[in-house]
Amino acid sequence: MCLGVNSQAMLWKTLESEPSMAFLHVHPTANYVFWWVSVALTVIVSVAYLLKVIFYFEAVRREFHHPVRVNFFFAPSIACLFLVKGEPHPVWEIHHVVYNLLMLPILCLGLKIYGQWMSSGERRLSKVANPSNHLAVVGNFVGALLGAKMGLRELPIFFFAVGLAHYAVLFVTLYQRLPTNVQLPKELHPVFFLFVAAPSVASMAWARISGEFNDGAKLLYFISLFLYMSLVVRISLFTGFRFSLAWWAYTFPMTSVALATALYASEVDNLLTRALAVGLAVIAVVTVTAVLATTLYHAFVCGDLFPNDVSIAITRRKPKFSKMLTQIRSSSSEVKDLVLSIPNFSSSSKHSSSNSRAS
User: Fold this and answer.
1) How far, in Å, are 34, 78, 123, 305 from residue 296 at the CA level?
2) What share of the chain is helix, strand, coil (3-state, %, to 5)?
3) In angstroms, what is the C-alpha Rg of the chain?
4) Closest by alpha carbon to 245, among 183, 312, 302, 307?
5) 152 close to 99: Cβ distance less than 8 angstroms
6) pLDDT per residue rounded down to tens, the chain (359 residues)
7) Of 46, 119, 146, 237, which sits most exposed with the smallest number of CB within 10 A?
8) DSSP string, 25-45
């Protein structure tokens, strides 16, 4: 959710500042509104997950060892990078310490996850590869994009190189669909759109690093555009399952392609590229709005947004309050059984004594 909404703030800032989008006359208020909504949503989700870490640490530990959910541990840093990039004020006014603090978790998680992909037996890439692994890669490109925008040089190139190397390996592995790969359930099919996110953000990052939307950036952009179109025509892949939070996987990649198209239109400025940029931006905004409205409807009207997650959201250590309730219930049931068993015992003893006299 944070990735989808935070990237919208970045989109409206781009539509306001890019020369190719000047004819839209986007007011800065749109960027302000989306940015503050993004800040509020990020704080709410962060506090909620922090409470989960405190009270249900076993569930968080299981998520970290899950082949799909471990990739979402990159999401907080990526969402904060989007917040910094989409801030209404110029990015270069932000201190470089903020950038280093945001990239440190991505570096540490990358060292662990990429090492497991390469050398771990049960967690090697050929065994756990799934589309959500793109989140483990796209953070490097988002960091490279922000660092280049802040005027840094070496660190953005470093993170871009790390992301590009692992994206190439991940792309080939996912395309091969090895029999040993983890199979995604149908409800998680929206994460296939994460195929689009990495090359589109990488194209923007390389354009900022090199100072222009050159052939390298165009190469990555065209890959993302083709993957976007190839997923859109596969309607059957994204139908037949009910709404869940996985639908937010549509939002961030669509916004990334719209952002990259706006930068491309500034380099290749004509009617077609402008129309493409505006069209993709409208699709991204409508998608985010629709998914946000559906999420609020299921959360506050239907009350079925969070189904019982049997595989993850179970802790072996119950809270003290739950233990007290369990003890009270068990003690009351024991007393009840004892009371019911007393007359049965007396009747059986009388019956046994009469039998003994008869014998």
Assistant:
1) 17, 23, 36, 9
2) 80, 0, 20
3) 27
4) 307
5) yes
6) 999 999 999 999 999 989 889 888 888 898 899 999 999 999 999 999 999 999 888 888 888 988 888 999 999 999 999 999 988 877 777 888 999 999 999 999 999 999 888 887 778 888 888 888 999 999 999 999 999 999 899 999 999 999 999 999 999 988 887 655 566 777 778 888 999 999 999 999 999 999 999 999 999 999 999 999 999 988 877 777 788 888 899 999 999 999 999 999 999 989 999 999 999 999 999 999 999 999 999 888 887 777 666 555 444 444 454 454 455 445 545 434 444 444 444 444 444 444 544 44
7) 119
8) ---HHHHHHHHHHHHHHHHHH
The pTM (predicted TM-score) of the whole model is 0.82
Distance CA 129, CA 183 (A): 9
Kind plus residue range of the DSSP H or E element containing 3: helix 2-17
Tokens of 188: 């998680």
Amino acid at 58: E
